[in-house]
Request: fold
Amino acid sequence: MTRRSPRGHHLVGGYGLPALAVLLFLAFSLALPDTFPTRENVSSILSNQSVPALLALGVTLPVATGKFDLSVGYGLGLAHVMVMHLIVDTGTPWQVACLVVVLGGALVGALNGVVVEFARIDSLIATLGTGSIMYALTGWLTDGGRIVPGPEGLPAAFTALYDGSFLGLPVPAFYVLAAVAVLWVVLERLPFGRYLYVVGSNPRAAGVLGIRTRRYSVCAFAGSGLVVGFAGVLLAAQQQIGNPSVGLEYLLPAFVGALLGSTTVRPGRANALGTLVAVGVLAVGLAGIGQLGAQFWATPLFNGLTLLLAVGLAGYAARRRLRPPAGAGT
Reply:
């Protein structure tokens, strides 16, 4: 009987999603030759997807430890409102406001990790609870209204964080690439990343090996919060108002990106390059169906179906990774 080549499975698992991204881009380019394969459209996709991409990369860290942070959408909303509050309402220099929010995001993330690890509450329940608290803080800070800059507007250097360009590409794209590079080094080249993966795959074995599982889990949540804080700064520079209702719509795409990303490049585990590829697939797909004139409900439908597919594929990839190779017992 002919057996499927393990190398073939590896190629499909490792490069199937990047190939899908290319095929989608080619398909939409053929369907929309005048608008889709243009430089303006590519720049628009890169700009619009920068915040979801950063959020997905933030989610990747807790997912690597087998945890889920449902507070990232609420945290994003609070972070961008806090930036606007500090700049507009208190007159804080924008550089200081951004630094405070980014570091505050890391602190909130660490508190999430403490609640999960030391209060022994399931991560889904714990972060849903802390996220609800963040949402309440956002409402309290804005009193249910929007924070709108005065006639003088926001500092040009602050809005340039999103509106600027470099080497012909929007600046936010480089933030995403920088975050991917840092996360790749942390997860793939440093002992810290290897410990995170061990904690995620087998916490009991990690404890036996002397790995301080609680510490690494808290650090993963803190790293996630740091990225969410920066994404909030970028969202504020994009929106240029503080809107208390913004944030939750980014939660589902973030998890789709992180979970779908765990099925490619390094199948079976969350990884930065895989998340980037997954976000690319989502970005091309959403941009394409949008330009084809899809109804407003097509976006949540696309995200929901992709999430189900991502969870299924992630589970399958993880099972294949743990399965002994054929002939190992002979």
